[in-house]
Amino acid sequence: MPKRKVVYAITIALLLAIMNINMTIVNAQSTKPVVVSTLPMLNYIAELVGGNYVKAISAVPQGANPETYEPSPQDLKTIINADIILASGLHHTRLEEILERYYSQGKIKGIYLDVNTYKLYGLKLIEVSGKPSPHGFWWDPKGLAAVALALANALAEKDPAHANYYKIRAEEIAQEALKYSNSLSGLRVAVYSPPDMYFARGCGADVVLLLTPNPSSTPTPNKVKELFASKSSIDVLIVSSIDIKLSKAALGLVEKFEKSGGKVAIVPLGAPGWDPLSSIIAGVWTVLNVVNKGSPQMTGQAGSGSLSYGDVVLSLVVGIALGVGVMVAWARKVCG
Questions:
Q1: For a 10 Å CB count at each end of the chain, is N or C smaller?
Q2: d(Cα 218, Cα 48) in Å, to the nearest integer?
Q3: Confidence of residue 319 (pLDDT cuts 50, 70, 90)
Q4: What are the tens digits of pLDDT across the range 181-198?
């Protein structure tokens, strides 16, 4: 064979090999399980469990209200064709009402995960006015563990080649979360809304008062009166960043309660960019920091002074920073 033909043959062989490699990469990418989450916090869990082997999509666009958002027909088609839909359940949002109807009609072919599945993995819902609350159960260490483990099993079914990876990731996440399940044990607390209650109860605190049925509500005058009447018998009032964002009354109540000598811990539940595990870690540190410092108006002790609302916010920032450090260390341990 002439040299020119040999060169041509080699060149063609190389091109075919490169094309084959590229097609293999494309096929590998296209076969990633698609997990669509109906809430941003659930999407964080999907990213933690699935890593680079999963295409995790939040169905709710950045900045949209998860409770009222309704997808376009094209977006809805993407959602119902997902391999796994990660939902909260209990008719929590407008989107979930639509998906539950589609699911009952057999129009969702993938795996649909919600509270009914998470209960099998240890989730315990709180009840508000006699009804189970779906608001923020992923901020309970047991609730977070339940979602992660349920998702890992669903991913293992859809992607058996990486089943061990998903299960190990989920178990690591569950173990890390459950480390904090008794971290607030012995504390008597009041909480602003159900997400705060899930967090506080899940971390071992005794919740003696719930002020509102959801984060966007305003406490009734009787609830506010009850809070101030029980001030001496509770260790701290827990208010989350999501309460302050959604309720105009939350910040005013915080300031009023502090001025009366009460202790307030503002925990980063629902803070943008924070996954539930980071929020739990930073939240625990923030509560303990506020409790150990004593009353915001504490005086008469050596080295003590008046703590302002700014001090509480500073505690939140430091708590978040600590949470980042812990998460980085944990990620290095899991990912090597």
A1: C
A2: 34
A3: very low
A4: 999 999 999 999 999 999
